[in-house]
Amino acid sequence: MNTTIASLATPEGVGGLAVIRISGPDAYFVAQNLCGKEKIKPRYALYTPLCSPVGLEIDSGVLTFFQAPHSYTGEDVVELSCHGGVVVSTELLEACYSFGCVSAQPGEFTRRAFLNGKMDLCQAEAVADVIMSESSAGKEASYKILSGKFSTLILKLKQSLFVLVSTLEGELDFTEDEITPTPTKEKRALVLNVLSQTKDVLSTYSTGKMLQHGALIALVGKPNVGKSSLLNAILSEERTIVSETPGTTRDAVEVPFLINNFPVRLVDTAGIRRSDDAVEDLGMGFTRQYIENADLVLKVIDLSLPRDAVEKEIKSFNCSKPVIYVLNKSDLLNNGSKKAWGSNGPGVVTTSALRGDGVDDLKETIYNKLVSHSSLSGGLVLTTSRHKLSLDSVASSLERALFIIDSNDSPEILSVELRDAVSHLDEILGLTSVDDILDNIFSKFCIGK
């Protein structure tokens, strides 16, 4: 990290302001050359002309110097706030490069912050997640990790295990006549407590993954049951073609949407039926793939069919994924038929896509089906697959440790499993990460962060 990097920290293009970030050992020298001043007060917003290497004034803007280690990266950092647009920012960056800067790589500022101890690895990952959030709920989950709450939990679990490992290995140097070994009950309780907390965090991953990528919801059913109309009703806009002709929807239509601020991806799929049409048959193949990958399936059924036919279709639908049965076209029922259906029971919602009846109830049912309220009621939500894999390994090591304790096996073997669990906790914080892992993580960042 001997180089000094510079990059645009705001989106390219026309805008009111642009921010250029500079970090590295020569950042102060670059700032002096840009503004023509010998001394620049740290953490002070200086309004000044910003000049090229030949002394031509490029723009007037605000220059702020953050002296190491009190900066985002832990190095000397300079931030330039200038007028927006392509020309001004380009000319200022070219001036920075002339004064010795090199162009920053994606995520390089945050990578330097991690390597300089300003944040741990899971916090560094959360920086990108906060920036890329598509919902307030997703941002909130990522920000809790960025703020250090997840790191605090990991350190707490690590400390509990480390104390036990230290005790066990200390006892190996003495005989039972010289010291009193840690009781089996005490060892078991400690390991079980860490394992329970680990599994509690792991249980939030399904919710966290959906917050990051959007829950995939597949609308499936026979042709002409109103899947496209229902999708339009949920979105409150016409996004898919509606026709009485069976087989109109031949290719899946995926639409991002927020339900109670929870990100979802609604997919209108081709109707499932026997067909000699090769294109329609291909569309039904996509439908089956979407069902297989879905987080939730909306099985749409024509409620105007005879009651026994509707009940048979509900009972005959085999799906391993969570399902909500949507009984559509309630507008075609007379009042007597509506009363006959009465309460549909859990997991069944009656709607009229044409009139919009029951659509709000359907949205609420979707939200409740997808979201674990314990995950979103102030607790941590696991959002990253890397963290999940490490915690899975922690849980496996601890389960083996419990077996060793119950089997009254040697303390040496128990210590090995506990150290393995500690090592996987260190992976999450980046204490044992290798360069290729770091390259993969920071390559996903935007330039300037």
Describe the structure.
It contains 16 helices and 12 strands. With 449 residues, it is of the alpha/beta class. It folds into 3 domains: 116 residues, Gyrase A, domain 2, CATH 3.30.1360; 131 residues, Four Helix Bundle (Hemerythrin (Met), subunit A) (Up-down Bundle), CATH 1.20.120.430; 161 residues, Rossmann fold (3-Layer(aba) Sandwich), CATH 3.40.50.300. It has a 6-stranded mixed beta sheet. Strand 8 and strand 9 form a beta hairpin. Helix 6 packs antiparallel against helix 15 and helix 7 runs antiparallel to helix 14. This is TrmE-type G domain-containing protein.
Number of strands: 12
CATH architecture label name of the largest domain: 3-Layer(aba) Sandwich
Question: Treating each run of at least 4 consecutive H or I residues as one helix, how many helices?
Answer: 16
Task: Order the strands across the largest sheet as they lie in space.
Answer: 3-4-5-2-1-6
Query: Considering the protein shown, what is the CATH homologous superfamily of the largest domain?
Result: P-loop containing nucleotide triphosphate hydrolases
Percent strand = 15-25%
| Quaternary structure | single chain
Structural class: alpha/beta
Largest sheet: 6 strands, mixed
CATH class of the largest domain: Alpha Beta
Instruction: Estimate the global geometry from the Cα principal axes.
Output: flat
Terminus-to-terminus distance: 16 Å
Encode the helix/strand succession as letters.
Answer: EEHEEEHEHHHHHHEHEEHEHEHEHHHH
From the 3D structure, determine the CATH topology of the largest domain.
Rossmann fold
Mean pLDDT: 86
| Unreliable sequence segments | 245-250
Helix content percent band: 40-55%
Number of folding domains?
A: 3
Rg for CA atoms = 29 Å
